[in-house]
What we know:
This protein is an alpha/beta fold. The chain has helices at residues 16-27, 39-45, 61-71, 94-122, 144-164, 182-188, 191-198, 209-220, and strands spanning 7-11, 31-36, 51-55, 76-79, 126-131, 169-176, 231-234. Helix 1 crosses helix 8 (209-220), helix 3 runs parallel beside helix 4 and helix 4 packs parallel to helix 5 (144-164). The longest helix is centred in the middle third of the chain and has 29 residues, at 94-122.
Amino acid sequence: MEFAGKRVIITGAGKGIGRVLTQMLSARGASVIALTRSAGDVEALRDVPGCTAIEVDLSNAQATRQAARQALPADLLVNCAGTTDLQSFVETSVESFDHLIAVNTRAPMIVAQEYARDLIAKGQKGAIVNVSSVASFVGIADHAAYCASKSGLDGLTRVMALELAPHGIRVNAVNPTVTLTPMAVKAWSDPKKWAGMLNRIPVGRFAEPVDVAEVILFLLSDEAAMVNGIAMPVDGGYMIT
Ligand code: NDP
């Protein structure tokens, strides 16, 4: 897979999957424009060769659009930023629900709109990967807002794939199971929940960020030229159990 000289926008590049993906693309000669929130991460990303970091809170629609425009031009886009908030369904607050939809579903739409408009205007081809979750396919206790936000993202991915493919822009989603990042610590540190989830993964382990990043790289690459509109589990077989 050839990424040398490509400019790639990655949201949520500060930690976890986005951070590992940024390092992998940098090592392959790509320039990454990282959109992320914490000032410390923005600072640390400056040490990654070829990486430019833009500090933005993706829950703010106007700031997101401004940051997306600032990040252009780009060849490829990965909407990786995401957040979660554990609440039972009956306790799920409107504030939390709105926040998760804003970061996990609305921000990918806004960033992709700016990216796609620019490519369409120039007649250039591209590819987008939206980082979704197996939580899009199944119900997970205490994840009502998260599941809704990721199912929404998969729906968005399909419409984007349909409308952007005629312009030469492919759009796909990856749907990881529990991946060993700061988010997993937040969502799965209860040993009972952890064990219950692990028991349902046939390969017998959780995903590492690199497992997810490798699939994203494939979907971004020209090798995936006929792959468009899919939501691809990266789950060690969780979805077949
Ligand atoms: P991490 O929490 O490790 O990293 C998430 C990144 O997104 C951080 O850099 C974070 O910045 C950034 N981010 C979150 N909210 C905002 C915001 N409002 N504005 C700007 N940046 C923001 O998560 P993962 O790497 O685990 O998750 C990456 C993606 O993978 C997410 O979309 C997640 O939903 C998905 N996923 C993760 C799974 C897991 O088990 N880890 C499983 C399935 C899917 P900051 O820390 O500064 O807020």
